[in-house]
Amino acid sequence: MSRSKKPGESDGSPHGRPHGSLGARDVGAGHASASGEVQGGRPQRGSTPPKTSRPAPDEQRPAEPLTEEGTAARAYVDQIATHPLSVKGKSAQELADQFTAAGYTSYPEQTFKAGTSGKAVQVRVFGHPMITNIEVHPGGGRHTPEGSPYWRISTNVNGKIWVVPRDFRGSGRLAGQVVRYDE
Fold first, then answer.
1. Cα–Cα distance for residue pair 160/16, rounded to 1 Å
2. What's the rounded mean pLDDT across residues 76-93?
3. What residues does each domain of the chain span?
4. Predicted confidence band at 40 (pLDDT cuts at 50, 70, 90)?
5. Three-class SS of residue 131?
6. Region 22-35: what's the mean pLDDT?
7. DSSP 8-state class, residue 174
8. Is pLDDT of 163 > 70?
């Protein structure tokens, strides 16, 4: 006949744990310890989250341009949605610089989306009343041959506007407005 063990008494297991049921207090302490390990440096409730690549809402509001160059940049970016051909020939960096000079937060970002050629560069725009993103593609993917660029303007009002060459493949299946720049 085996003798019964008292709570907290070791059963000689290699793990050194006491045999028998643990009390609610011990279980709660275990949960708290495990929870702390899993959190592993995550900010606690009420703390400031780490800075991400997206600007905070107060950084998205456009400042009034202080220079003549800034005023010209504001006029340029404000007419892109109504005159999309104005992006033809512009690089992602040039477009981002125009939005920045106009007082908006913007930056170029390389696209690494799976299933794409990986050549496109996104111009992320924050605070503009219409334009949220402009994709600049140098060509050489499934839509156009090498050296035949195109642009996709994303708006929060009119959807997408594609500025494409005549040799763009699949333009009939695109969602949004298609504008040809070489016709």
1. 65
2. 96
3. 66-180
4. very low
5. strand
6. 50
7. -
8. yes
**Contact, 88 vs 163, CB < 8 A?**
yes
Give the pLDDT confidence of 167-176 residue by residue, as tens digits: 888 888 888 9
Strand order in the sheet with 160-164: 105-110, 121-126, 131-137, 150-155, 160-164, 177-180
- Determine the Cα–Cα distance for residues 9 and 2; give it in Å rounded to an integer: 15
**Residue-level pLDDT at 145:** 78
- Whole-angstrom CA distances from 142 to 119, 120, 177 are 11, 12, 19
CB burial string 50-86: b at 16+ within 10 A, e below: eeeeebeeeeeebeebeeeebeebbebbeebbeebeb
Q: What is the CA radius of gyration of the chain?
A: 29
Distance CA 40, CA 156 (A): 38
Give Cα 1 to chain centroid, integer Å. Answer: 68
The tokens for 116 are 């794409």
Please state, in angstroms and rounded to a whole number, the distance separating the CA atoms of residues 41 and 131: 37
**How many other CB atoms sit within 10 Å of the CB of residue 101?**
19
Tokens of 102: 């106009």
Nearest to 164 by CA among 147, 178, 145, 146: 178
Q: Cβ of 90: how many Cβ atoms within 10 Å?
A: 19
pLDDT tens, position by position, 7-24: 555 555 555 545 544 555
